[in-house]
């Protein structure tokens, strides 16, 4: 859960540089 969630979060953040 931690690994999968982290991976998805990282990918999303990389695609949408809004943070």
Characteristic key phrases:
ATP binding, mainly alpha, elongated, 19 residues, single chain
In short:
GO terms for molecular function: ATP binding; microtubule binding; microtubule motor activity. The protein has 19 residues and is mainly α.
Structure explained in plain terms:
- The protein is mostly helical and 19 residues long.
- Helices cover 74% and strands 0% of the residues.
- It has one helix and no strands.
- It has one helix spanning 2-15.
- The longest helix is centred in the middle third of the chain and has 14 residues, at 2-15.
- The termini are far apart.
List the helices and strands and how they pair.
Blueprint lengths: L1 H14 L4
Strand element count: 0
Which class best fits the helix and strand makeup?
A: mainly alpha
The number of helices is 1
Radius of gyration: 8 Å
Q: Mean pLDDT, as a whole number?
A: 66
**SSE string, helices as H and strands as E:** H
Q: Report strand %.
A: under 5%
């Amino acid at each position: 859960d931690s690994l999968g969630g982290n991976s998805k979060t990282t990918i999303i953040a990389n695609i949408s540089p809004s943070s």
